[in-house]
Amino acid sequence: MRGRSRCAQTRRCAPSPGLRSLSSGRPLQAGPVGNPTSPRAAGKGNRIFSKPDRVKQDNDAIVAAFRERLKKVAGFNFVPEPLPMKNTNNAVIYYLFLASAKPVAEKIIEEIFSKYR
To answer: Which of 61, 76, 105, 112 has a Cα-to-Cα distance from 50 of 20 to 30 A?
Structure first.
């Protein structure tokens, strides 16, 4: 009886009354989700089925934020405007970012990008 669990082979398994811990076999109890001391959890109770706190941003805001992150966090001094890559329906699929620590690279990138804008 290959491929079947021992439980299915012997038919001696009783259905479990609830979820049990794999290590100790004790019943699992529902508790708070996430860090109960975080500011998000404070006073809000269980947030499993609540709406997320995210706000939808347009592409321009995301591009500007990522460009700033390349400059400030990654430390690139020269980050030209990215080139939007579009499909045959003229919809933006992704943005091509190029970043450099040298000013010469920015000039080269701008020259190449200008052909496709």
So the answer is: 61
Considering the entire predicted model, what is its pTM? 0.52
- For residue 57, how far is the Cα from the chain centroid? 15
- In a domain, residue 41? The reply is no
Instruction: Note the pLDDT tens digit of each residue in 65-116.
Output: 999 999 999 999 999 999 999 999 999 999 999 999 999 998 898 898 888 8
- Using the Cα atoms of residue 75, residue 65, residue 107 and residue 97 in order, give the sign of their dihedral: positive
Per DSSP, helices labelled H in 1-117 are: 6-10, 59-72, 103-116
The boundaries of the domain holding residue 92 are: 77-117
d(CA 53, CA 43): 15
- Give the chain's domain count: 1
